[in-house]
Amino acid sequence: MDDKSGRLKKKRGVTRTSVTKICKAIETELTKTDVNVDALEEMLEQLAVESNELKNLDSQIEEFVSDDKLEKEVKEVAEYTQKIITWKFRATKKIRERTKNVDSLNVPSSCYKESSSNIKLPKLSISKFYGQSSLWLSFWNSFESAMHENDSLSEVSKFNYLKAHLGGSALSTIEGFALTPENYEIAIKLLKERFGRSDVLINTHLNNLLRICPLKNSDDIVSFRKMFDNIQTEIRSLESLNVLKETYQNLLCPLLLKCLPPDLVLEYNKSMKSDKYEINELVDFLSIQLKAKERSLMYASPVSSKKEKYPYPRYDSSRAKK
Q1: Nearest 5°: phi and psi at 107?
Q2: Angle 89-91-94 (CA atoms, 0-180°, nearest 5)?
Q3: Higher pLDDT, 171 or 304
Q4: What tens digit of pLDDT does each residue of 247-303 get?
Q5: What is the pTM of this model?
Q6: Partner of 170 for a Cys bridge, out of 76, 94, 166, 242, CB 3.0 to 4.6 A?
Q7: Helix, strand, coil shares of the chain as percentages rounded to 5?
Q8: What does the alpha-carbon distance between residue 110 and residue 120 come to, in Å, rounded to a whole number?
């Protein structure tokens, strides 16, 4: 028992020394005019590890402490606990001041570089990315503007926010990485390689276009609008990937026409300016047709219920008593 107790106390002595050094380093950093937020966050990570180890050792050593030495033991444990809490609080407070309390889930619009900084703008919400390739560009564009290019945030803070906005297979890709500036860059590279590969994204968007749900009735404006918006979204995504429309429009246009009801196909064929298919021409045609139907719906009179031709019983003179 004495040997085990002695080993635990030696180990705790080393851990306490490490805690003291980290707290001293935090104190030194906080006295600087230009505080290094990355360094502070790294120290907090180290302090958290040592704190957990110290707590575990204290718990094990307490079993070997005699009653007459228990009070001294409790005071020493409380002293180190207070030291950890104090410097953790001070470091966290300074980090919050430097990062301007950026919320990891509801990103204030002030994160975006605006010329009118005094104007209060609504908070922006970045949707979590779970690993669906077709949503990568949308997610990354939002995160890049709000976080990645935000000079007021440290690399470690950005890494924290990145993890907070990931889920599923996307989070699993970088979950094991320690929160360091170097790992932040590596994590972004891995995510881009897995979910942001241009060939994968191009195939995904093309497949989405090929799987567009057919429109059965052109008067079904809700379905028409949904179909049109989906086509627009996928085409714009392909444009952002520098895919030329000429490379896929001859294949795509006939397939999209098969998803349209006969009346729209007929009208489109009447409006074609040449025998060659052009995706812009087809999209413009659908836009005109959809807007016309939406406007027509605005001016349509509500359908009134049919009234009885004779709301009251008719007088039958032949049955009248003479």
Answers
A1: -85, 120
A2: 105
A3: 171
A4: 888 888 898 999 999 999 999 998 888 888 889 899 999 999 999 888 888 776 555
A5: 0.45
A6: 166
A7: 70, 0, 30
A8: 8
For residue 3, give the amino acid letter.
D
Give the Cα separation of 166 and 177 in Å (integer): 14
Amino acid letter for position 50: E
Retrieve residue 19's tokens. 């805690």
Q: Which residue in 197, 192, 155 sits closest to 173, CA to CA?
A: 192
Partners of 125 in the beta sheet? 106
Choose among 46, 158, 147: nearest CA to 95. 158
Cα(109)–Cα(123) distance, integer angstroms: 5
Residue 59 burial by Cβ neighbours in a 10 Å radius (0-12, 13-18, 19+): exposed
Backbone angles phi, psi at 124, to 5 degrees: -110, 140
The first and second tokens of residue 137, run together, are 């560009």
Q: Which residues contact 226 (CB under 8 A, 6 or more apart)?
A: 213
* Domain boundaries along the sequence of the chain: 1-97, 133-196, 200-299
pLDDT value for 22: 92
CA distance 167 to 162: 10
Rg (alpha carbons) of the chain, rounded to whole number: 34
Scan for tokens 């009134």, then name that residue: 304
Q: In this predicted structure, what is the pLDDT of residue 296?
A: 83
- Report the distance separating Cα 132 and Cα 149, nearest Å: 23
Write out the E strands in 106-196.
Answer: 106-107, 124-125
Average pLDDT over residues 3-14: 87
Give the C-alpha distances (Å, rounded to integers) separating 110 from 96, 117, 125, 127. Answer: 15, 7, 13, 18
Tokens of 151: 């000079």
- Is residue 74 within 8 Å of residue 94, measured between CB atoms? no
Cβ burial, residue 172 (10 Å; 0-12/13-18/19+): exposed
